[in-house]
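Reading a protein record of the kind used here takes only a little practice. An example makes this concrete, so a full record is given next.
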Amino acid sequence: MEQDASEKEIKKAYRKLAVKHHPDKGGDEHKFKEISAAYEILSDSEKRAKYDKYGLDGVTDESPGHTHDDLFSMFFGGGGSSRRQSGPRKAESVHHPLKVSLEDLYNGKTVKLGITRQVIIGKPTKCISCNGEGAVIEIRQIAMGMVQQIQRKCPLCGGHGHRAQFKKERKVLEVHVPQGAKHQQKITFRGMGDETPNMEPGDVHFVVQETEHELFKRKGADLLLTKTVSLNEALCGFEWQIEHLDGRHLVLQSLPGQVIQPEDADGRPYVKIVPNEGMPSLGSPFVKGNLYVLFRVEFPTPQQLTPEILKALKITLPQPAMELDYNPEDVEVVPLSEGNVQAFGKGGAVSSSAYDSDDDESTGAAQGVQCQQS
């Protein structure tokens, strides 16, 4: 029987189907994803045990979207048997936000968190009101000789089909945040949600909430720093000491002769990188991203540029301004004022719509009036 197929037989069937339906080989991408999702369930002993017992209702998080018998028939082409019972549905999962600093995401962290869950006392009993169906039928008369049949959730058992007594139970969970964990990543504890009659307990998800860092910004496995340097530092070099997320102190140093530009050749922010000093990769913590340093060059203020400094700069810096030879009486010398590029195109007088309208009307009137001959 296909359901008794060994791990080796399933793997062999998967490889054959994966080659056949791979998108790069001209196959159907949706079909390929379904096959891969099914193999993920059947190749995992724990997931397969749940699937054998409950069907896809027992592995809802990994469900590729098929009926209970479709996984084996997908690999072996048979119809499959109905020996797997349609087990209880799974209760809703619970989500708890978990605020984590960037340092903890870099180094990894384990925290103990307490949760309170609802557990069943004793054994649930079938609801006598709905006979275990979870729903009751009501018949209402809406007019003479006309009735309406309405199905609604059983108020006695809350739609579960079974009734039970409950108590509150407090559990302390050890939540491990792995190195390189990402914002909004879920850390899941299977079956630790509230117990509900005739249903499997739901899961408890701790959702990682990355808090903002005062120095670093993160994107994937890369980190970004912003550094403002003076014109002197941009031209002559600089050293900058920082404390990394693991407590190490790094001195970022510009190379001799390296000039920090206000922007790159394409007009984008000017950046340099320190290779392998970014975040650890999730699942491969020894493989790290890069540390990017974005530069802003701060130019000196007019008050800082005394005549003596300007004279020295003009002699020292390359490409001084050429002195023009002209007669002040033949040209007009105009000074430069402060401006804003957002105001470009808004100069000149503002046209008055009322004036334009009057002008149009007067023109039209002049065309429509004839001089009276005496």
In short: The chain has eight helices and 17 strands. The domain at 2-87 is CATH 1.10.287 (Helix Hairpins). The mean pLDDT is 81.
